[in-house]
Structures are given as structure tokens and as C-alpha cells.
Design brief:
By secondary structure, the chain is α/β, with parallel strands linked by helices. The chain has two domains: about 1-25 and about 75-85 and about 120-205 and about 240-275, Alkaline Phosphatase, subunit A; about 30-65 and about 90-115, no CATH class. About 25% of the residues lie in helices and about 10% in strands. The chain is built from eight helices and seven strands, in the order H-E-H-H-E-E-E-H-E-H-E-H-H-E-H. The strands form three sheets. It has a three-stranded parallel beta sheet with strand order 2-1-5, with helices on both faces.
């Protein structure tokens, strides 16, 4: 959905010699060459029936071994996990119905046998750590875009974090996500590059109402804070989100800006930081 000619934060950075990497969700409409005939073989069944129709696995193999176009590696990134422009495996069954319960997966699509959601967040975290570990060995600076699956559904909380919040799975996942970000920041510190790195932490929307918000609020935890509404609402609780930045020597510690900020502003700000003139449009 990003036009091929359109600049991105990654392409801006890459034009100045940065190594660019994307780890996590892309979520912008992969340009996958799937025929209308084959689409019927990947749309979820909407039933508890996980039986395969004749030809399913054969057609999935045709689909899932193809290169996916219009992904991060065509929009300014040198590398993307999941591996660049291919999936890491070929499905052999429908996702198990059990995975659709308790705010886990939302669609019963094709799946690899034994697929679990819980390893996703730790795997993305480990990929970030590995990238940052090697940062100091390169002369070129880096731009790392990390798009986590959390805190959101699926509420795939790992055992070490289950029950930690005493507020339910969503709050447990928030705590696990905080810890994952802590690991990434620690890896940045260990790389020796923290003093010269601009860190931005934000989200795309407010807390989803379907994660049992009422229960959390009954225990005194209000995920939207003082704001009205949740994800998908036009009220501020739906789209006014935290934006936390750290840039040693540039942004004073513990400072707060009362200015109205939008994520789209990052394009202009980044261009100014890199000394790149942007057209008015």
C-alpha cells in the first residue's frame, strides 16, 4: 500500500548510507501473486472443521514458496524478518481451532503443524539483540524499525509472565512487552551506540476494548488513562498514544513536550536531522 516511488523513513536513512533493518509486523498488504481460484484455498473456513480439501497442500506449496512483492525490502530496508521476501515455511494444515480462543489468533488460515504464537515476541526481541550486537562492528550507522505484535491480540503470554500483573492476560502481555523493550535497549547499551542513537517508542492505537478492559478497570487499572474510548473509537482513547523519545545530548532527560505530535511528523523531522530537503508534497 506504500507506492513504490514514495519515500519512507528507511529510504531516507538508506540514502545517507545507513544500514536499514525491519523486524516485526509489516501489515500493509503483501503483493502476493495469488490467483482468484487459489484464494479460496487460503481463506479461513469459519468453522471448527480442520479437514483439508483435495489439493489444499499442493496449492499452498505453490503459493507459499513464491516471492512476496511490495514488502520492506522494496521500500527502503536492506533486511526484513520474517526472512526478506519469503515465508519461513509452507503450511500443511488449517490453524487448530484451539488457537482461535482466548484472544489468540483471529482467523483460521493455513498453518504450519505445531505453530504457536508465544515464541513470536521473544523471537523478534532476539533478532533485535543480534542486530544491535553487531552494530559497533560496522562503520555505517543503522536504522532499526521494530514493529512488535504486542501489546495487542494475540494475547500470547509466555509462562514466565502469566499472572504477573494480577490484572489478566492483557496486562501480563504489557509487562512482557516492557521486558522485551528493556532487552532491546540493553543490547543497544551493550553495543556502545546508545549515546549516539535516537530511540522512539510509540503505538498505532489505544488499548483494544475486547481484551477484557472492564475487568482491568474494575481493579483500578485504566489502560486509556484519563482519556475516553479505546481502539477504533474517534475519542482520544482510541488514537492518542504515548510517544517516548530518548536522544542523549539532544532531548533533555525527563522533559515533556505539550506540542501536538503526529507519527507522520517523523518523516520531516528525520529528513531535517539527516539534512535531506523534502518537497512540499
Amino acid at each position: 500500500m506504500i507506492a513504490p516511488h514514495r519515500r519512507t523513513l528507511a529510504s531516507l536513512a538508506k540514502s545517507k548510507g545507513y544500514r536499514t533493518q525491519c523486524i516485526g509486523k509489516w501489515h500493509l498488504g503483501w503483493n502476493w501473486p495469488i490467483s482468484e481460484e487459489h484464494l479460496t484455498f487460503i481463506r479461513q473456513s469459519h468453522t471448527k472443521d480442520v479437514a483439508l480439501k483435495a489439493g489444499h497442500v499442493r496449492i499452498w506449496k505453490e503459493i507459499f514458496t513464491q516471492r512476496i512483492g511490495s514488502g520492506p525490502t522494496e521500500r527502503g530496508f536492506d533486511y526484513y524478518f520474517i526472512e526478506n521476501d519469503h515465508t519461513l515455511g509452507v503450511p500443511t494444515q488449517w490453524l487448530e481451532p484451539l488457537m482461535l480462543e482466548r484472544n489468540q489468533a483471529s482467523k483460521q488460515g493455513p498453518a504450519i503443524k505445531g505453530w504457536q504464537l508465544e515464541p513470536i515476541l521473544p523471537t523478534l526481541t532476539a533478532k533485535c539483540e543480534a542486530f544491535l550486537k553487531g552494530a559497533s562492528s560496522h562503520e555505517a550507522p543503522f536504522f532499526l524499525y521494530v514493529s512488535l505484535t504486542a501489546p495487542h491480540t494475540p494475547l500470547a503470554v509466555n509462562d514466565a509472565w502469566k499472572g504477573k500483573s494480577h490484572l489478566g492476560p492483557y496486562a501480563d502481555l504489557v509487562m512482557e512487552t516492557d521486558a522485551a523493550i528493556g532487552r532491546i535497549l540493553q543490547a543497544l547499551d551493550d553495543s556502545g551506540e546508545a549515546a549516539n542513537t535516537w530511540v522512539i517508542f510509540t503505538s498505532d492505537n489505544g488499548c483494544a476494548p475486547y481484551v477484557d478492559v472492564a475487568s482491568m478497570e474494575s481493579h483500578g487499572h485504566h489502560p486509556s488513562g484519563p482519556l475516553r474510548g479505546y481502539k477504533s473509537d474517534a475519542w482520544e482513547g482510541g488514537h492518542r498514544v504515548p510517544c517516548i523519545m530518548r536522544w542523549p545530548g539532544v532531548i533533555p532527560p525527563s522533559s515533556i513536550s505539550r506540542s501536538l505530535v503526529h507519527q507522520a511528523d517523523l518523516m520531516d523531522t528525520t529528513a531535517k536531522v539527516l539534512g535531506i530537503p523534502l518537497r512540499a508534497d
